[in-house]
């Protein structure tokens, strides 16, 4: 373990991981997806629980 | 004067190279090739090409060829004098002269030959361009390199894989496809999946892990004994998936993960019980070295009852052990029972710990092990949920807990796909023995997106189900592939040891667009497309059927595939492969309906019917073809990862952006209601379920939940139950799973992380991370490089 100095900061340039499902599979981060699937993911709308279930 | 070249009738190519150089008065000395090089003119080359066309079409002989060639030369001399003609001009003249001489069939053959050569040249050029792109362009900027999200197109091995794939595709299209199939594929009427593997192998297999383990197996790199503990069962299961993946181009699945691993749990428990009992006796009686005495007592009990120590041992077995202890150590019945109970409790704990570790190891292995030249982790799936034995239940609980924990830094595991088999009487109802595990699966899936669910009570699955025979439970290859019915051998309608051979998808929206709203025309086109694809699948099967056991050392050599254990190394695979499926897929039902009728199947009841008619028509075709050929033609709801974009890009070029049809960047998956269409969970499931019954080669429905609903386990479970009750075959629930690598938070992250408050790319004080760690002890250490 390194001793942290008082003003040490973490996370510069580190993004969030966003995991989504393509076929039945999950894909770790979306930057590996092809353009069509990225567009599809972007367009997905949430389904509402109204009325039933 | 021109020199006439005289051929003997019926002479064969290649032509003799010593034919005299042409010497003429007004003469053509040289010609210009396509690449601009100037080379010596040789009339015999022209004659040779002409003869080739004549022979191919049985229209003319060598003397005819020479005559035509002479006329071509005469015309060249008159038109070009001493200038150099180019290749295209010469070929135009050959065509014209063949027609002039009345060799119409030969002229047609010559034109076809020219067209083919042109295509080959273009293929070569485009192959080189493709390789250039693979070599020089960052995958982030190359859609082609991201075609399969599981291959890292930036690595050396990933690039080599893509170059090989590009070369194989070019070859397969030129040499293996019939011209009409090549055209349909090239122009986007159909898509031949895994086309790079066209001549090499089949898609996937459900590995019966128990059958493989019994007696041990060989990976091709060494022999492995039958495993003896849950740790080695789990390790070998991962190796089996990896080994088989090298023999096939698709995914690998274990249909009986719980039943299979349960045996390993039982072996671990039996060993642990012996040791713990010895420890208990030694401690109580202050003895040492009681190993062999205890061993003898246990052996006698096993001999007398035919049973071993189990998580829930039988009373007969326990009483035999107790009697043995009483005799050996002069113990009271009471004390013997006390020692046995102590040993049982401790063995149980130990076995549970070992199982948990084994499951964690399995998940880690499958997320880190490489196959296929180091670029991919194996596409792997495991099915479980129905084994109600205490050992099987221990496996299910621990694999779910391992999934729940995630990887080393709490990351969500990408592999394997977990598939929970839901069955009334087993785990669906509150009073069912595995209901607690079903509940646990909901909790885990609400956090980690897995497991997905397969529903054994849906009628098209239930028809195969025989209680007590797990091989009759439908299992899924994670992407969706389903193999159950078997017209080749109706006595073997099972999930184990079978898989898909190949599949090809139809561009359904294009058929609709080209039918201009005429339903009758559409169905005619659809029928023709189905026939074309069926023939192409059979052509591919011919290539596959001619392979030998030695081409698939693991899949066939180790008896993974059904009946392959009865073959020898040199045998071909025709008969055993018939247990597999040939699948016809489709994409874009929603756009198809919109094109034909103006609305998709989410928008009206009439369209619900129309959609089912189209897909029912395709299923009918598959059933008839199956009966006709006695092979398993099945209908697939295509998992369109790369295809969704490929088809629509081509159709946009052809037809422009037609509203509701070609105006997005992707066609809608198979029979799905479009992802952008607002609809309730209930309606989405209700509308898509009937297609699960029709698409017998595989299907999946997704429901998209927001993060808060998904994390409400009651709500989550109610969605799964809704799927069950509507007769969905295979379903999963999507919800956002985000992770901040700095503080380890997993959940929904909007602009800012709810735990540490940082935004994407921002830094936070290390002290703050330390404070958070006190609040969240499970928080992984941030490594700096993620």
Description:
The complex is a heterodimer of chains A (53) and B (786). Chain A is of the alpha+beta class. Chain A has a domain at 17-45. Chain A has one helix at residues 35-43; strands at residues 9-10, 17-21, 26-27. A two-stranded antiparallel ribbon of chain A has the order 2-3. In chain A, strand 2 (17-21) and strand 3 (26-27) form a beta hairpin. Chain A is extended, with a radius of gyration of 19 Å. The N and C termini of chain A lie far apart (51 Å). The mean pLDDT of chain A is 73. By secondary structure, chain B is an alpha/beta fold. Among the domains of chain B are: 1-136, no CATH class; 143-169, no CATH class; 211-242 and 251-380, no CATH class; 749-775, no CATH class. In chain B, 49% of the residues lie in helices and 9% in strands. Chain B is built from 25 helices and 18 strands. In chain B, the strands form five sheets. A seven-stranded mixed beta sheet of chain B has the order 4-7-8-9-10-15-14. In chain B, helix 1 crosses helix 2, helix 17 (519-545) runs parallel beside helix 20 and helix 19 crosses helix 20. Chain B is elongated. Chains A and B meet through strand 1, strand 2, strand 3 and helix 1 of A and helix 21, helix 22, strand 14, helix 24 and strand 15 of B. Strand 2 of chain A pairs antiparallel with strand 16 of chain B.
